[in-house]
Amino acid sequence: MNDLARWLGEQLDEDERIARGATDGPWTPWRGARLHGLGDLIHPVLTPGQKPGAKAAIVTESWLDADHIAEWDPARVLREIDAKRDLLRFAEGIYDHHETFTTGVAARLEKTLRLFALPYADRPGYEESWRP
Q1: pTM confidence score
Q2: How far is CA 26 from CA 5, 10, 78, in A?
């Protein structure tokens, strides 16, 4: 489990690096946009940002895309990373002391970490033996 926990921690570090490099939010679908008669052909997400001079708009093909992008703004991603790290530390702490728990508890914790790792299965270093 140590390899899995270490690798999963590295994926969270990468997610954090990407989120911290992105334009600050909040990101919102910009339904009020009037873009030179293009109407519903483009669906922008406004990312106003808090960094000096940071203003951006992401153009999507549908309002569902725009809603999805806005929902996953960097602040939300960072909150999710923090929550996953807390759960990872909790699982590692219990697993490190597994001799005081039943084998079933250790197995369930390992299964939980395997499930946490599954969304990252397309990244380098993922081992198929970790698949739940």
Answers
A1: 0.77
A2: 31, 26, 13
